[in-house]
Specification:
There is one protein chain. By secondary structure, the chain is α/β, with parallel strands linked by helices. Among the domains are: 48-214, 3-Layer(aba) Sandwich (Rossmann fold), CATH 3.40.50.620; 235-345 and 387-407, Argininosuccinate synthetase, chain A, domain 2, CATH 3.90.1260. 40% of the residues lie in helices and 17% in strands. The protein has 14 helices and 14 strands. It has helices spanning 11-20, 35-45, 64-76, 95-103, 115-128, 145-159, 174-185, 203-212, 290-303, 328-344, 347-366, 372-384, 415-418, 431-450, and strands at residues 55-59, 80-87, 109-113, 163-165, 190-192, 228-231, 236-239, 269-276, 279-283, 286-287, 308-314, 320-326, 390-397, 400-407. The strands form three sheets. The chain has a five-stranded parallel beta sheet, with helices on both faces. It has a five-stranded antiparallel beta sheet with strand order 10-9-8-13-14. Strands 6-7-12-11 form a four-stranded antiparallel beta sheet, with no helix packed on it. The longest helix is centred in the C-terminal third of the chain and has 20 residues, at 347-366. The protein is elongated. It starts with 10 loop residues before the first helix and ends with a helix. Residues 55-215 form the Arginosuccinate synthase-like N-terminal domain. InterPro entries: Arginosuc_syn_C, Arginosuc_syn_N, Arginosuc_synth, Arginosuc_synth_CS, Arginosuc_synth_type_1_subfam, AS_cat/multimer_dom_body, Rossmann-like_a/b/a_fold. Keywords: Amino-acid biosynthesis, Arginine biosynthesis, ATP-binding, Ligase, Nucleotide-binding. Pathway: Amino-acid biosynthesis; L-arginine biosynthesis; L-arginine from L-ornithine and carbamoyl phosphate: step 2/3.
């Protein structure tokens, strides 16, 4: 198909017109684009077409920001708003969100307990990759967004909504994560991002708007909070304001999920974690559901001062940001997982996973959970976990997680071969000489040729 047939203006026709045209002569117009191309364009622009928005599903926490967004959507878009509140283990009472939504005139209110799905279908698959963004971040906020987006789209289909909305700002990563999830699951969905549309660009404007609409503003919200937080069963994050200077140490009274290592017990805690196909299934011999297991790991890890990190990360939108995170149970889980893999996985599998991990972690961080490349990497990673079963014993002491034992019926570790004692001929040490000479051949050749 030529350019003109594809809906592009023919270059030769345009050149001829430019040579012959007089001032004021209209340029030839391009043929109309195909319906398919028009649809693609609508994905990017229709979210701003208020006339086509009749019902919106809002990701709603019941806090000040989303309460303002709820009212703003009702007035600006003159549409019905459906609220969706996800229980991901953030540790907050969610019924107040229902009451606030009811007071705002919302008819359809969804409050869903997604804790088990969150851990089993999102956290654990991500941990099979041993994911660390930029070497340190366990992706606690990132991994929650695709599940919220998925459930929002499900609700939108259920109630016949033609749009979804979120409370992420135009500076952060979450707007990208939410919206890539929306479009990946429903390409024609309309997305409303108030922070990119309204003029409530300061805290004082937000509060003034809330007060003018009769929205309750808690006393603690009237001044800039010392930091912004986001919590779920995997972690809690602290960002902004008091933490924006990366030189300043965070205040110890900020942390909510862990004691400081200095205040942790003087006696070590031992813990055994059973794994099946790469996922933890039991603690100290007790079988637990994914969410219950992670919750118990959080408790014992937090009591021992484990899981705090203070990092400057590279946001997908381009800027650097400083964040402080508590991921108590996840920190133990990552260490224990690597220990069980060390005896159950072949060297090639281990090293390939380590090569794939940064790419996988970046996909999760940037919001590409539903992308074909993440799914492809997941399939490769899950293949390596088929024989990754066994038990790891860890020692917890004042902020540290130390592996002190590991065992598996699928262990590739052979004590007889590894032993410094007589191995009965299982390994002929003389063979190493030829192995080394072959490995050194290219180095010896280069040295002789280059005179080094």
């Amino acid at each position: 198909m030529g350019l003109a047939a594809a809906g592009e203006l023919d270059v030769h026709s345009l050149a001829g017109a430019l040579r012959s045209m007089k001032r004021g002569t209209a340029l030839p117009t391009a043929p109309k684009r195909s319906h398919r191309l028009q649809s693609r364009c609508l994905v990017r622009t229709c979210a701003l077409d208020k006339s086509n928005v009749n019902k919106v599903v809002l990701a709603y926490s019941g806090g000040l920001d989303t309460s303002v967004i709820l009212k703003w959507l009702q007035e600006t878009y003159e549409c019905e708003v459906v609220t969706f509140t996800a229980d991901l283990g953030q540790g907050e009472e969610l019924e107040p969100a229902r009451k606030k939504a009811e007071a705002a005139g919302v008819k359809d209110i969804f409050i869903d307990d997604l804790r088990e799905e969150f851990v089993s279908d999102y956290v654990f698959p991500m941990f099979r990759a041993n994911s660390l963004y930029e070497g340190v971040y366990l992706l606690g906020t990132s991994i929650a967004r695709p599940l919220i987006a998925k459930r929002q789209i499900e609700i939108a289909k259920q109630v016949g909504a033609d749009a979804v909305s979120h409370g992420a700002t135009g500076k952060g990563n979450d707007q990208v994560r939410f919206e890539l999830g929306y479009y990946g699951l429903k390409p024609d969905i309309k997305v409303i991002s108030p922070w990119r549309e309204w003029d409530l660009t300061s805290r004082s404007k937000l509060i003034s708007y809330a007060e003018s609409k009769g929205i309750d503003v808690p006393q603690g919200k009237r001044n800039d909070p010392p930091f912004s937080t986001d919590a779920n069963l995997l972690h809690i994050s602290y960002e902004g304001n008091a933490l924006e200077d990366p030189w300043q140490e965070p205040s110890q009274d900020m942390f909510t999920r862990s004691v400081s290592p200095e205040q942790a017990p003087d006696k070590a805690t031992y813990l055994e974690i059973d794994f099946e196909k790469g996922d933890p299934v039991a603690l100290d011999g007790q079988k637990l559901s994914p969410a219950s297991l992670l919750a118990q790991l959080n408790k014992v890890a937090g009591d021992n001062g484990i899981g705090r990190i203070d990092i400057v990360e590279s946001r997908f939108v381009g800027m650097k940001s400083r964040g402080v995170y508590e991921t108590p149970g996840g920190t133990i889980l990552l260490t224990a997982r690597r220990a069980i893999e060390s005896i159950c996985l072949d060297r090639g599998e281990l090293h390939l996973k380590d090569e794939l991990m940064p790419r996988y972690a970046e996909l999760v961080y940037n919001g590409f959970w539903f992308s074909p490349e993440r799914r492809a990497l997941q399939a490769a990673i899950d293949e390596t976990q088929k024989f990754c079963s066994g038990t790891v014993r860890v020692k917890l002491y004042k902020g540290n997680v130390m592996v002190v034992g590991r065992k598996s019926e699928y262990s590739l570790y052979d004590e007889k071969i590894a032993s410094f004692e007589d191995d009965g001929g299982l390994y002929d040490q003389k063979d190493a000489a030829g192995f080394i000479k072959l490995q050194a051949l290219r180095l010896r050749t280069m040295g002789a040729n280059r005179g080094v």
